[in-house]
Amino acid sequence: MPSVWVDADACPKVAREIIVRAAERTRTAAWFVANHTVPLPRSAWVKALAVSQGFDAADDEIVERIQPGDLLITSDLPLAMAAIERQAKVMTTRGEALDANNIRARVQMRDFMETMRASGEHTGGPSGYSDSDRREFANALDRWLAKNA
Fold first, then answer.
1. Which CATH number is 135's domain given?
2. For 58-70, what is the mean pLDDT?
3. How many Å apart are CA 86 and CA 59, to the nearest integer?
4. Residues 27-55 pLDDT 10s
5. What is the pLDDT of residue 125?
6. Burial class (CB within 10 angstroms; exposed 0-12, middle 13-18, buried 19+) of 137
7. What CA–CA distance (Å, rounded) separates 66 from 49?
8. Cα–Cα distance, 11 to 62 (Å, whole number)
9. How many Å apart are CA 52 and CA 100, to the nearest integer?
10. pLDDT single digits (tens) 11-20
11. 21 inside domain
């Protein structure tokens, strides 16, 4: 049975709660990987994996452990690309599917926006996590679990 891997360093609390409830309901292993302690309930299905402090330490741990068919939940595009290359499924905490067909364009746009910000351009950041984002994420996660759990 595939596992769910969560890039927990930047996972919104509400998304974390959705993942925990879904893992319990479907008896699916969910691994929250971060370089800090993530508050999680005691559960046979929900596990925290704390990694050393360091640039991309959590990402490296996820890439090392993720298996083909597992699901990664992240908004980190380079991490998403590495997981896709390992045949994992990827979705953002807003429920957007990332795959081999769209990841390169997303990474290129991210790099372009980084270049713009470095040149002094104010590009703004992502919008706040809305009720609509929460619903889209919960629905996308439920669909994946229904097919894979």
1. 3.40.50
2. 96
3. 13
4. 999 999 999 889 999 999 999 999 987 77
5. 61
6. buried
7. 13
8. 14
9. 30
10. 999 999 999 9
11. yes
For residue 59, being part of any structural domain is answered with yes
Q: Is the dihedral of CA 118, 123, 124, 125 positive or negative?
A: negative
Q: Percentage helix, strand, coil, to 5, in the chain?
A: 45, 15, 40
Q: Which residue has the tokens 């991210």?
A: 110
Q: Which domain holds residue 56?
A: 4-98+128-148
Residue with tokens 């104010």: 122
When divided into structural domains, the chain yields a total of 1
Per residue in 87-142, pLDDT tens?
999 999 999 999 998 887 777 776 666 776 677 766 666 678 899 999 999 999 99
Q: Which of 97, 91, 73, 96 is nearest to 10 (CA)?
A: 73
pLDDT reported for residue 91? 97
124-75-24 Cα angle (round to 5): 135
CB 48 within 8 A of CB 34: yes
User: Phi then psi for 28, rounded to 5 degrees?
Assistant: -110, 135
Residue 121 lies in a domain: no
